[in-house]
Amino acid sequence: MDAESQKNHLKAYGITYWTLNKGLKVKWLLNYRGGSFLLPDTNDIQRECQIRGISFEVLSNSKVESILEEISSPSKNMEAVVLEKAPKIAVYTPKGKLPWDDAVTMVLQYAEIPYETVYDEEVLNDGLLLFDWLHLHHEDFTGQYGKFYGAYRAASWYIQEKKDAEALAAKLGYSKVSQEKSDVALKIRDYVVGGGFMFAMCSATDSFDIALSAEGVDICEPMFDGDGSDPAYQNKIDFNKTFAFTNFILERSPIVYEFSSIDMTRKRRVPKTTDYFSLMEFSAKWDPIPTMLCQNHTALVKGFMGQTTSFTRDEIKSNVLVLGETKSNGEAKYIHGIKGKGFFTFYGGHDPEDYQHRVGDAKTELDLHPTSPGYRLILNNVLFPAARKKKQKT
After folding, report:
1. What letter would DSSP give residue 274?
2. In a 3-state reduction of DSSP, which class is residue 20?
3. What is the pTM of this model?
4. Which among 50, 83, 116 is the end of a domain?
């Protein structure tokens, strides 16, 4: 999985998932040649790699032993993690989503990793209990329809999406979309606390935390929910309820395409030509989880924008790990934390291979980006739940 030898990094995750789905175990060699996968040598796996255009090497038993011995050396920042079972994957996304919407769905399809879609009805009926891993589509959990009002309130797609959301909320017994979305966020919180793995990108990151923090508080203006917001809502925000963020200020204006001070989009001054973020280095033997999530063939990844591009460093809770950052700008791009028995990862930006994706733009063709480091970070999270849990020392 290094830069020189692998011609399709993204599909390599797919063949690893396919192998796990066959009931076979895989070793993920953290920090060894870009985080390579050690698969059993079978004719079926070799043939499947050839069909999918994945680079691979056949190793002798003695060569494998030599590699594992090198990895186990205390002087090497490497580790061999056993992947045991293919996680069952859900993508939280509205029915009939638009083609520009979701990088995770695109890369799962490209890597040929199976998934199911769920939305509010399934979530509220405890459907998440069937899944090991959940991705949050670029949703607005605050009930403000993505804060698209300022630019798109007259657009037919915006009007229709608002009607659809109101109809779904009414069907589920709610008088307001914001109340329904709040309950959805709480169900997702419970899923993670109970042991689920949750991954979110772009506006699903901060709007999720905002919804948790504003439980029972009206933060929506009349054009969103038909009545005024609580004039003192900022003082009623409970930061103890959030996963990742604290001490943020909500954006009151319905015209401004922004949820809060968490996002760096409007504050950053980074030219496109120099917009990169660096991945943090962790101890593979002592911190295998963050090491797993940062596996890549480069430590420097191209930046990309979104409604929520990146996170204000000062507003991230102290118990949350920063996995990727833009040092020159003091912003975090990629963060990870533990909540109860489960885990969450937030990744800022919309599409790792489309710098400033706009509504209506054509979707990214991943055939043109088979070695994308930015997309690899998504797939690290997909395989993360497959890792064997190490017994903790007492």
Report:
1. G
2. helix
3. 0.95
4. 83
